[in-house]
Amino acid sequence: MTSTLEHSESGTAPANRPNLVAVGTIVWLSSELMFFAALFAMYFTARSVQGPKVWLESTGMLNIPFSTLNTTVLVLSSVTCQFGVFAAERFQLRRTGSALDFRKWGMTEWFALTFLMGAFFVGGQIFEYANLVSEGLSFSTNAYSSVFYLTTGFHGLHVTGGLVAFLILLARTFKARRFGHSQATSAIVVSYYWHFVDIVWIGLFATIYLIK
Amino acid sequence: MKFAWKLFLGITVFYGALTVVYAMLAHEVVGITALALSTGLSLIIGYYFWFTDRRLGAQPQDRLQAEIHEGAGELGFFSPGSWWPLPVAGSTIVVGLGLILGWWLTMIGVGLLLITVIGFTMEYSRPGHGPH
């Protein structure tokens, strides 16, 4: 039992072969992309079947400045997430300086900031939904509102899943006796997922809010 | 990894060319979306394999003269057996049933799913609960 315990802590793979956890995550993310491909296809189909009139009526209700702010926060959270990965790659779990000195932050501080920014994004989405519903654009108003809520809602669920992943990751590193390769691998694959969700949002934002 | 990234980036080029041809001939968005994102699908895997290959250098599988034993060694950590996937799957069923029967059941299911996912991911992080 001791040997297997050491196994689980010493790391997922030696440095000279591809990390199976990371490869698996990448393959899974590429299949996630096809899930979003279906959502995009649904959006475009509904648009071409309904004609431009329904779209013109409904897209005027979108609050573009607010969603731009929300998008900016999500994109910046990818940057903070990457700084967390850099910290994880040098096996630095906690900060070495004061809490405000972000140059000395460890993975925990960067990921906590990323979590807060992601939570801000989800909160902003809920705020936006509440405003739209109060203005009369609910899930079943018309074809536009249905595809709008489905595409952005599924993305929001993915962001929420990412937030849960960050919490589990932080809990795991907190429990681990030593911050090693296996912890760093978890940090890296969660960051892959986070970047992916971020890129999908840029595509969705461009489609729904900018091109309309 | 050389063959792997060449294969996937080759598929990327194929899908990319197909997307352009389809866009010019069909004037229909669903197929363009599907083909463009299929390009993305193979690009993600191909780029990752290319990146990994550059980072790791030549692997035994890249050489025709390589021996089986050169690929020996630790592959990674695999759970020797776990009951946790079962409750995770069960909670997913509850979430899905809730979509048919009523939102109250979905809410319960989401709670169950969170608990079971935490159990699943934390199984080997609890002190003294290593694999047996």
TrEMBL record, chain A:
Record's bilayer topology term: Multi-pass membrane protein
Keywords on record: Cell membrane, Membrane, Transmembrane, Transmembrane helix
Pfam families reported for this sequence: COX3
GO biological process, one term: aerobic electron transport chain
GO cellular component terms attached to this protein's record: plasma membrane
Ranges for domain Heme-copper oxidase subunit III family profile: 1-212
Compartment(s) where it occurs, according to its Swiss-Prot or TrEMBL record: Cell membrane
Record field: transmembrane: 20-44, 64-88, 109-127, 147-171, 192-211
Molecular function via GO: cytochrome-c oxidase activity
Family: Belongs to the cytochrome c oxidase subunit 3 family.
Entry protein name: Unannotated protein
Organism expressing this protein natively: freshwater metagenome
Automatic annotation (TrEMBL), chain B:
A single GO molecular function term of this UniProt record: cytochrome-c oxidase activity
Subcellular location: Cell membrane
Broad class of the protein's primary localization: membrane
Annotated keywords: Cell membrane, Membrane, Transmembrane, Transmembrane helix
Membrane topology: Multi-pass membrane protein
A GO cellular-component term linked to this record: plasma membrane
Pfam families found in the cross-reference section: Cyt_c_ox_IV
Protein name as it appears in the record: Unannotated protein
Lineage: unclassified sequences, metagenomes, ecological metagenomes
